[in-house]
Amino acid sequence: MLVRGLRGLQHFGLNLGSLATGLYFALIAVAAQSGPGLQARWCLAGAAWLAGVAWLGSLRRTRAIAELATSRIASAAQGYVEIMGRASTQTDQLIHTPLGGIACIWYRYRLYSRGNAKREWRQIDSGTSSATFDIVDASGVCSVDPDHAEVVGAQARTSYPGDDKLVEECLFGGSTIYVLGEFLTLGGASSTLNAREDVSALLTRWKQDRTDLHQRFDLDRNGTIDLQEWELARNLATQTIEREHRSIRQQAGVHLLRAPEDGRLFLISALSPQALRKHFLRWSIFHLAMTAAAVAGWIYLA
Hints:
The chain is of the alpha+beta class. 44% of the residues lie in helices and 25% in strands.
């Protein structure tokens, strides 16, 4: 249940670290405005806890990126991997942002309005794309399902349609895309096939056309299929299914990257692994410093 909840937040461009950051800044602001007292101490205690959560989240991301080597698409192991490839520029792969009409492979947008009396920007609409897109390296092609991904390093564009403000973040075709997630191959050599069930299903289909069944397997033409003739039919069905299975496994499988089912980090970025590690390391240091500052403030007021 918790994993589904966190993935729901990620679908809207949020993650636990960013939420914790916003909340602990709000608590620090309340503590500063309330002055010395019990309320300020409680706010600082909450800020320290949330800053610690954000620090652990950033540190977790730094370690996840550092611990995995980049895999090639054709030789990547089934499971949790790190892959880099160039995003497809084919027309059928491109989508358009719903308000700005920007051609891209992924987008997230937020629309703000100044409809309140204070003329402050207030978010009135938002959305994130869920269309799959392909990335390519020297070894092959892999589709990426961006649902529930944490996207970092997308290009942001701000425009002012009418009296509103529109912020659109996009990943573009032709750019190098980094993905950390669950890799699986559908079809091809990794196909899950059940010979016994398929042979049984084929024999059932043959039984439904009794005229053809007797013409093929009633060798003595006595109007019945005896045990020896039925064994012949079963052997032929087995050989047929084995040929079909060999043909299926010789076909090229479809590679897919998606959100891990166990809730591990699913990250998509236009940044390199090195830049991502530095990005999250800087944030982890910042959150740790804010944790220390909030604890120091609580001790001072206490």
